[in-house]
């Protein structure tokens, strides 16, 4: 099954076309990267994938986890890591623990606060990304790399099947970037989480990813396919 | 104490403490969503509602609430039209509100009544207004607690909140109504020109000490209650206008906190 399947996607801002019949598929368990110049439409594509921009039958189709996006309602299976939040979280008065627990919303439900079980899940996922000692720390007091690991923990706390990352290491130093990639790779290889990562960091591509997609002139084309010896299903 | 011998001062303290409890609940979300100026825009627009209410002979607090709700949705509508310049929507709505209030105030027969909404008249509120404050405060506090985790997540990251299943549109709608209700009752008591300071200053103070979101909310409420009580005391014993005094106490406290942190931080 394809975790992501995009067919003939078009989108324009006014008279300016951004996507012009883009096609792409990411089979389950794969690690795919999306590259492209600034303004190529990567953010637009992410917004469409996450259901933020309107998608009618006329501007193509998107499938997530084998279901059409319009009918898709299992968002807890999708983890999302936004761009480095260093600037926006600088003075935000929230602890690491509160931020990760916030994503357990659908599990906790309306008009309830998280209990012991939810706290335990938060501790588990924080220890998986090496951030458990920082759980009481304010998010703004952490470095950019540590913040991204917290956001990764937040995305993983629901044990998603698909992880979408939007330039997660922009503004993060080399050492923390490498550590971040090591974690993503581990979750992909060991837990089978499908990864779709928008990135500017071309250095990481060959070692990390199975497929690299490039968005240019509104269309997507696959530019690299690594680890060909391994069977990850049909593309 | 002499100050508590007067019924109007007892009412002022009761209403003041209730408002000081609920205003930061709204304020903390507005500040963290980086929309501090919305409080200002809505409170200024509420004056247009007050003027309209006084002209039409309807309760000015109710008409102020209606004006706030219309303005809040107006801001959202303009933001959607101009997403890249969203802050412009606040300036447009604020200008429209002030302009309309200015024109309508010319038709208000009792200008003293209209002016009382500018800086509030917490020591001159009626029993009916006191009950209104009690009722609205209870509802706002209850809804804030019920939507505590939704409002927190939306303030942190609205996109991730939506993906996690938070009904973002509905919660935003409810929050807009709550904001409008709080601003309109606060306009009558502490003043339309002052209410937004009461939303922002205690939160700014609390953010200097809070180690997490929960603490920040509790500290913000505590700061606002202290500012309110101290402001009313100063206003009574020094013959000052209460609304302005309360805000000045808050601003001075914030300056002291900033200075204290800088001095202590420098030594450390």
Automatic annotation (TrEMBL), chain A:
Keyword Oxidoreductase on entry: no
GO MF terms held by the record: ATP binding; ATP hydrolysis activity
Domain ABC transporter: 4-235
Taxonomy, superkingdom: Bacteria
Keyword list, A-Z: ATP-binding, Nucleotide-binding, Transport
Alphabetical list of InterPro entries matching this protein: AAA+_ATPase (IPR003593), ABC_transporter-like_ATP-bd (IPR003439), ABC_transporter-like_CS (IPR017871), Metal_Ion_Import_ABC (IPR050153), P-loop_NTPase (IPR027417)
Pfam families: ABC_tran (PF00005)
Family, similarity comment: Belongs to the ABC transporter superfamily.
Protein name listed in UniProt: ABC transporter
UniProtKB/TrEMBL annotation, chain B:
Transmembrane segments: 12-32, 52-78, 90-108, 128-148, 169-187, 217-238, 244-264
Keywords recorded for this protein, A-Z: Membrane, Transmembrane, Transmembrane helix, Transport
Lipid bilayer topology: Multi-pass membrane protein
Compartments where found: Cell membrane; Membrane
Main location: membrane
InterPro entries, alphabetized: ABC_BtuC-like, ABC_TroCD
BP-aspect Gene Ontology terms: response to zinc ion; transmembrane transport
Pfam families attached to this UniProt entry: ABC-3
A cellular-component GO term for this protein: ATP-binding cassette (ABC) transporter complex
UniProt family annotation: Belongs to the ABC-3 integral membrane protein family.
Protein known as: Metal ABC transporter permease
Species whose genome carries this gene: Lacrimispora algidixylanolytica
């Amino acid at each position: 099954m394809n975790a992501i399947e995009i067919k003939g996607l078009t989108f324009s801002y006014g008279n300016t076309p951004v996507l012009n019949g883009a096609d792409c598929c990411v089979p389950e368990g794969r690690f795919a990267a999306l590259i492209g110049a600034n303004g190529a439409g990567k953010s637009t594509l992410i917004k469409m994938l996450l259901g933020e921009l309107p998608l009618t039958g006329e501007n193509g189709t998107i499938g997530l986890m084998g279901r059409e996006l319009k009918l898709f309602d299992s968002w807890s299976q999708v983890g999302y890591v936004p761009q480095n939040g260093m600037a926006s979280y600088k003075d935000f008065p929230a602890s690491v623990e509160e931020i990760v627990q916030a994503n357990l919303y659908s599990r906790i439900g309306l008009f309830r606060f998280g209990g012991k079980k939810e706290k335990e899940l938060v501790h588990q996922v924080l220890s998986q990304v090496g951030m458990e000692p920082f759980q009481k720390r304010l998010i703004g007091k952490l470095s950019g790399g540590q913040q991204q690991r917290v956001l990764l923990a937040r995305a993983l706390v629901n044990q998603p099947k698909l992880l979408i990352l939007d330039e997660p290491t922009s503004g993060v130093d080399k050492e923390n970037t490498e550590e971040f990639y090591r974690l993503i790779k581990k979750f992909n290889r060991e837990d089978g989480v499908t990864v779709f990562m928008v990135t500017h960091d071309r250095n990481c591509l060959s070692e990390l990813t199975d497929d690299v997609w490039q968005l240019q002139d509104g269309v997507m084309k696959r530019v690299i396919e690594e680890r060909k010896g391994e069977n990850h299903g049909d593309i | 104490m002499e100050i508590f011998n007067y019924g109007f001062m007892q009412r002022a303290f009761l209403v003041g403490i209730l408002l000081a409890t609920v205003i930061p609940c709204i304020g903390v979300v507005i500040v963290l969503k980086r929309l501090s100026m919305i409080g200002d825009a809505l409170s200024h627009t509420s004056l247009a509602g007050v003027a309209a209410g006084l002209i039409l002979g309807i309760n000015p607090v109710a008409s102020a609430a209606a004006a706030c709700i219309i303005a809040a949705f107006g801001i959202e509508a303009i933001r959607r039209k101009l997403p890249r310049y969203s802050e412009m929507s606040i300036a447009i709505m604020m200008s429209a509100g002030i302009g309309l209030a200015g024109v309508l105030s010319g038709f208000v027969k009792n200008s003293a009544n209209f002016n009382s909404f500018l800086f509030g008249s917490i020591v001159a509120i009626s029993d009916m207004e006191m009950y209104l404050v009690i009722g609205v405060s209870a509802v706002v506090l209850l809804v804030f607690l019920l939507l505590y985790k939704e409002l927190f997540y939306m303030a942190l990251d609205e996109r991730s909140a939506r993906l996690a299943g938070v009904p973002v549109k509905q919660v935003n709608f409810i929050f807009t109504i709550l904001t409008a209700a709080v601003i309109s009752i606060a306009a009558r008591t502490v003043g339309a020109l002052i209410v937004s300071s009461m939303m922002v200053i205690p939160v700014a103070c609390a953010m200097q000490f809070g180690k997490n979101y929960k603490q920040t909310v509790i500290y913000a409420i505590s700061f606002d209650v202290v500012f309110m009580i101290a402001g009313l005391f100063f206003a009574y014993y020094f013959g000052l206008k209460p609304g302005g005094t309360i805000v000045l106490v808050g601003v001075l406290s914030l300056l002291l906190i900033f200075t204290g942190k800088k001095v202590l931080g420098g030594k450390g």
